[in-house]
Design a protein that fits this description.
This protein is of the alpha+beta class and 216 residues long. The chain folds into two domains: 45 residues, no CATH class; 112 residues, no CATH class. The protein is 36% helix and 23% strand. The protein contains six helices and seven strands. Strands 3-4-5-7-6 form a five-stranded antiparallel β-sheet, with helices on one face. Strands 1-2 form a two-stranded antiparallel sheet. The longest helix has 32 residues. It starts with 6 loop residues before the first helix and ends with a strand.
Length: 216
């Protein structure tokens, strides 16, 4: 310890009194001393002037602007991340349209007069009285459409259809393509209204001269 009667002790005592005076002045003006140091403002808050209020208002506006911008940005990002759904359905492949010449199913059930009403006047003449007297029971008529021929056999007495025959459209007069023969007459193998028979070439059983359709 430094004795108080020494010059150094006197100097420290003088500085201590000067500091105590300042502390008391702060206490009188609402500023309190704490165990940790000086509480500059104490329980009282310094008054805000207009400049401070304006600054705080600007700061709040800036914060709100950034907040709104952030929310909008998130929404845009979500919209951008949404996968594009292709609602357009794939176009189905165009099925091959069967190009028939004679629509045989529509002729099944008709007599010769009904067939003529659909296909028009046939080629050839009817049987003579002499041919009928000689025992002819059946006769045939040939209808031509788009260069293709349809031979129709019918009963002379009642003009009822016995069968239809469609010739092969190959220049050779024969074909191995039974599907093509079916297409020419718009035919189906399992149609209950008629029976289908492919007529073989005598000297070439693997080929056909045409297809015969027999109404049931």
């Amino acid at each position: 310890m430094i004795p108080l009667h020494t010059p150094m002790g006197q100097k420290l005592m003088h500085e201590f009194k000067h500091s105590e005076t300042k502390i008391n002045d702060y206490s009188d003006n609402g500023i309190e001393e704490t165990s940790f140091g000086l509480n500059i403002f104490g329980d009282k808050k310094p008054p805000m002037n207009n400049t401070t209020k304006l600054g705080m208002g600007i700061l709040i506006v800036i914060i709100l602007a950034f907040f709104i911008r952030g929310m909008t940005g998130n929404t845009d990002n979500k919209d951008a991340e949404q996968p594009t759904v292709n609602t357009s359905s794939a176009s189905p492949k165009n099925s091959q349209v069967i190009q028939y010449i004679f629509d045989i199913p529509s002729l099944v059930g008709k007599d010769l007069n009904g067939v003529i009403a659909v296909l028009g006047t046939p080629k050839g003449q009817g049987p003579t009285t002499q041919q009928i007297a000689l025992g002819a029971k059946e006769w045939d008529k040939t209808f031509v459409k788009d260069g293709k021929e349809l031979l129709v056999t019918y009963t002379i007495s009642n003009r009822r259809i016995v069968d239809f025959f469609i010739s092969a459209d190959d220049p050779s007069g024969k074909t191995k393509n039974t599907t093509r023969l079916m297409e020419l007459g718009n035919l189906k193998q399992n149609d209950p209204r008629y029976r289908v028979e492919f007529v073989k070439v005598l000297k070439d059983p693997s080929s056909f001269t045409g297809v015969k359709i027999i109404p049931k």
